[in-house]
Amino acid sequence: MVEILLISLTIFVLATFVGFEVITKVPPTLHTPLMSGSNAISGITLVGALVVAGRGGGTLAIVLGTLAVVLATINVVGGFVVTDRMLRMFRREDKSGGR
Questions:
Q1: CA-CA distance, 3 to 77, in Å (whole number)?
Q2: 15 has pLDDT over 90
Q3: Pairwise CA distance, residues 9 & 15, whole Å
Q4: pLDDT at position 16, please?
Q5: For residue 79, which of 39, 64, 71, 87 is within the disulfide window of CB 3.0 to 4.6 Å?
Q6: What is the 3-state secondary structure (H, E, C) of 26-78?
Q7: Torsion of CA 35, 87, 47, 28, to 10 degrees
Q8: Whole-Å CA distances, 79 to 29, 39, 63, 69, 92
């Protein structure tokens, strides 16, 4: 049991370092389009969190699953808000006074 936990923790720490290094190498002009793409991945995370929360495999699993649902939902909604804000920057303004 301890061995599995140690391996999982090692993988998590390595993935954190690799993810940080990859993100810091991305130019600022690509951050928003990449975040829009990762928004779809967050939707997949939300589905997985719903499955875990709905299984009812014990109180801890339900609490952690519900927390994952809340956090993934915040991430998805925030991604859509930022994407919408980015797309509004590229809209042409109507100079005719109409809508």
A1: 37
A2: yes
A3: 10
A4: 92
A5: 39
A6: CCHHHHHHHHHHHHHHHHHHHHHHHHHHHHCCCHHHHHHHHHHHHHHHHHHHH
A7: 0
A8: 16, 6, 24, 15, 23
Residues in the chain: 99
Q: From CA 67, how far away is CA 70, in angstroms rounded?
A: 5
Structure tokens at 84: 């919408």
Gap between the Cα atoms of 33 and 52, Å rounded: 30
Q: Among 73, 77, 79, which Cα is nearest to 35's? A: 79
Q: Is residue 94 very low, low, confident or very high in pLDDT (cuts 50, 70, 90)?
A: low
64 has a pLDDT exceeding 80: yes
pLDDT at 79: 80
Q: Which residues of 19-35 are buried (b: 16+ CB within 10 A; e: fewer)?
A: eeeeeeeeeeeeeeeee
Domain layout of the chain by residue ranges = 2-89
Query: Residue 6 — pLDDT band, cuts 50, 70, 90?
Result: very high
